[in-house]
Known about the structure:
By secondary structure, the chain is α+β, with helices and mostly antiparallel strands. It folds into two domains: 3-95, no CATH class; 125-212. It is built from seven helices and five strands, in the order E-E-H-E-H-H-H-H-E-E-H-H. The strands form two sheets. It has a three-stranded antiparallel beta sheet, with helices on one face. A two-stranded antiparallel sheet has the order 4-5. Helix 4 (108-124) crosses helix 5 (133-139). It is elongated, with a radius of gyration of 22 Å.
Amino acid sequence: MALKDLHHLFLNHNTWNIRLQIPSYAQKYFNTKSVIKSTEMKRHEVEEAKLLRDEFIKEYKLMFLYIKRKGTAVGYTGQKNRDYQREWSRKENERSGGYRNSPPAGTTRFFTNACSKIKSKSKTNNLDFDLDPHYLKEIYPKDGKCPALGFVFKRGDHTGSLQESPTLDKIVPSKGYIKGNVHWVSRVANSVMSDATPDQVIQVGQYFKKVTEDLKNV
């Protein structure tokens, strides 16, 4: 692995951390010359750590640019910095679809979060797991649509996930979350397929269609 791939990353107690130097013009607003943040990713999870690093660096560089422009234009005081922090948080919430813990589908943070949650779920349920964020991105539908039902994926908010939200489904449940055994489908499609065989899904669908059509004729 090339050293440049690990720029801003360092290991501490077998966990990848991010270190970023703060430009001199912004240091007074942070009261420090650098920021350090743990990715919570272990040594072997370097690819996940790099994705988190890229998102972290991007956010801070946007922040530095904002401070530089505002500082040059109007000058910053402590109160203006607090006002800025609130404004920045608002913009970040908007950029992430409203909630940082629910990033827009298809973004780097979305795949990183999904991989982390699935890994934890697999460990809890003693399921095989060998996925990574890059693989989840590779198999994500290029058109952003549920392959089973054809509609565009939508993300839920803090009140609960939408039926159109993308979820990762195991094709053969007993095999766990391993490459070649997972695909992205909507939450509603996942629910329909979760406890039934393909033939049972078709049978139920045919029956449901029949009873609803019969109801229309009453």
